[in-house]
Known about the structure:
The complex is a heterodimer.
Chain A: H1 2-17, E1 31-36, H2 52-58, E2 66-68, E3 74-76, E4 79-86, E5 89-94, H3 108-116, H4 128-134, E6 136-143, E7 146-151, H5 158-161, E8 185-191, E9 195-200, E10 213-218, H6 222-230, E11 236-237, H7 242-251, E12 255-269, H8 279-288, H9 291-299, E13 304-306, H10 329-338, E14 351-352, E15 355-356, E16 358-364, H11 370-383, E17 387-393, H12 395-403, E18 409-415, H13 424-429, H14 444-455, H15 459-476, E19 479-491, E20 495-496, E21 513-514
Parallel strand pairs in A: 1-10, 1-11, 16-17, 16-18
Antiparallel strand pairs in A: 2-3, 4-5, 5-7, 6-7, 8-9, 9-10, 11-19, 12-18, 12-19, 13-19, 14-15, 20-21
Chain B: H1 2-41, H2 46-54, H3 63-72, H4 79-91, H5 105-140, H6 145-159, H7 162-176, H8 188-218, H9 222-228, H10 233-263, H11 265-270, H12 276-285, H13 289-317, H14 326-331, H15 336-349
Helix pairs in contact in B: 1-13, 2-3, 5-6, 5-8, 5-10, 6-8, 7-8, 8-10, 10-13, 12-13
Family (chain A): Belongs to the bacterial solute-binding protein 5 family.
Main location (chain A): periplasm
InterPro entries (chain A): Peptide/Ni-bd, SBP_5, SBP_5_dom
Amino acid sequence: MTLAVALTGIGAAAPFFLTAGFTSALAGEKTMHIAMPFGPNSPVPDPRARQNGWLSNRAGVSETLIGLSYDMELIPRLAQAYENMSPTEWKLILRDGVKFHDGTPMTAESVKASFEKLGEEGHPAHNPRLLKLLALESVTVEDAHTLIFKTSKPNSAFLWALTEPSAAVLKEGTDDLPIIGTGPFAFVSAETEKKYETRGFQDYWGGEPKLDRVVFNVIPDASVAALALQANDVDLVTNYPEQDFAALKEKGEGQLFSNETARLFFYQLRTKDGPLANKALRQALSLGLDRQLIVDATLAGVGGTPANGIFPANMASWYNTDLSLPFDPEKAKTLLDEAGITDTDGNGIREIDGKDLTVRIRTYEGRAALRPTMEITQELLKRIGIGVEISMGEYAANNDAVKSGEIQMNLQAWGTAPQGDPDYFPSTLVKSGASYNISGYENPELDALLEKGRSEFDDEVRRPFYEEIQAIINEDLPLIPVFHKTQVSVGNGKVTGYRIHPAETYLATVDLDLEQ
Amino acid sequence: MNGRNRTSALTGIHGILIKRLGALAVVLFGVSVLTFSLYYLSPGDKALAIAHARYMGEGNAPPEVVQAIREKYALNEPFLTQFKLWVSGYLKGDFGQSLVSGVPVWEIFLPNLRETLALACSALLIGLPLAFFLSLVSLWRPGSLYDRIAVAVASIGAAVPSYWLGLMLILVFAAWLNWLPSFGTGTPAHLILPAATLAVWITASQTRLFRSFLLEASSSPFLEALRLRGVGEKEIFWRHILRHAMVPAITMIGLDLAYLLEGAVIVEVIFARGGIGSLLVGSVMSRDYPIVLFLVMFSAFSYVAINSLIEALQDCLDPRKSLPAPSLRAQRPITTASATDSPDNTTGDR
């Protein structure tokens, strides 16, 4: 009755408030409402600072000099051409006719000024992380359209690092226009963790955007986002609940979008000591993982693709097409038997050095698929005779636990190529002595290949090195790739010009539109 | 007895204030030490956790950046140094900045507090009158069918989880009927569904409590004395039963309010509104400790403040503690003023 009374009250009041604020401000304007799980973390998020650029790049407000195609290859953006002059010098030629959102033209001077703000402590654009990625030392203007970027050390990933959304070109903001970019949409306003609003920019160098306004709404709960779509409060939900997506797919309903991303779910192993120092055992673990089953059970079969290696197939420039990570429990058992890891006391668990083999696995909160993946792994490994203890921990604490050998496997999810360059992931995780190499893994052959890849500036020459690196990781397994996350989005049936980018770097483009 | 009350009340106002402020300071200091210790002792590399949150993803920050964060925020310093640094900021009115966004904590806090207050107040405005109405129905014929229905409604309301109820309300009123927005903030319409979700919980908890307070007050022996003196039932209810029942009820309402200030996380997240609760959860997840510490301090402060307010209100309402008001005497020239006091003296003596 309480409910009934309350609801009747609301029902009576509802017509008076009807959806105010949800209709477009001006009649005839084409506004698109998009639901996403995270949002701006301040009212004026400078695209160059912290990770703000990711949002403004997706929103089409800020742009980088170089972009990443949907195959994760380098493409011209604000720079129309680029050239490696020496291991530490790069020449970039700017595109003609680019205008900032305040109507002024983009010049070599303005690009230089924008990049110089990265190193200014106290400036909202201050970004030590990006400077480190670029290894940027200085920017000099050669003529109105040409810039020379100098790095402090040879950096073969320089051009790739320029695709990082925070490497955006911006003009100093004003009170009226606090963020002045060059993209197809101009910044209007942001509300912390709630909303990011833009309007179409008619003078965009790539043509006039089709939408007048775009509003990004933060809806943390995916099921609520799905209901908001049903209620017509949003036109597009970027992160749709996987189970519901699968159901729509089954029924052939809904405007569905999906694409594999470079986010890899993988186990980082303690290889230096403990049971997983045994390579045959690591290989058996990988063979025992039914990756398709994991994806089916945790992400309804639509939210992930079983991994064949550390990079997804749509990372065309670097993906090693020869690799696979098969599910073969029989082979796993044979490998274990051959390595002398057998079950002699008949309790279903194999013994190593006379003791039951128990592998301790941990993961953390924050990504819904982590915990079920770990739980299914426990069951799958039990089937090949490996005892598993699982628990939830905290991200940074789990790393410490691997390092000390307290746990043997740490389930994580990383973007394996946030800027499209293949060096970052292996260099950070498996290179000897690397910062996140908590496995204690050391492989001189792999180290040498990574060195070669870094010192070479022609991507065609670099390619075979990285193909081999991927093969070594699959063979040696200092980490076990499980699946690449697939992003699933659902539109209201009218959305056109939308594609899911593998690094989720772009969304609102000139072509994004709503059919009437 | 009246004379003693009067003198103690005169000196008491300052006394109570000083006592309260002292208690507040002690509580806040205790909470700050506890919270900071828990933060300090929590496992894992804090700099790494901050980098993780700041750069939105695992392994997104090079080790030099993590190291820079560690140095900038003095995360490697011993406990006392870090604690002093933090407390001295508070004493100067500087609550620090979010480690994730760099925005001052106070600027993050205020808009969230506004959302939370708007939601908590609307929920109480809907929930309390309903609870009052249902308890009156109960009181009207205790043990009757109506009473049982009211109790049943309250029990069901208490058993329904907000997560489910919130989603159902969105489904019905936003997705099917399209009367109300499904998420967000900005207009009064945005408040209705989340407030209704919370109101169900308030109604449920308060109905059961208020019903028993009213039943208890209405069976007090002094009511018979009043009836014998010829005081009407209406006056007995409004002036005596209700006033007695309000004393414990206010405590419970105050506790509900304090809870709503921090505990409406689920409703805040479901309706994508933001607010103190979801801010706290988000900050804990990203180890944004300046915000976490501030919110814990705020929570401690609001509990103490609300409790003090409750006590003050109770002092006004409780006939045993209040002074005989001259205006009441003037209104009621006959003997009843002392009559009101006498039964309470009896209860007091018991």
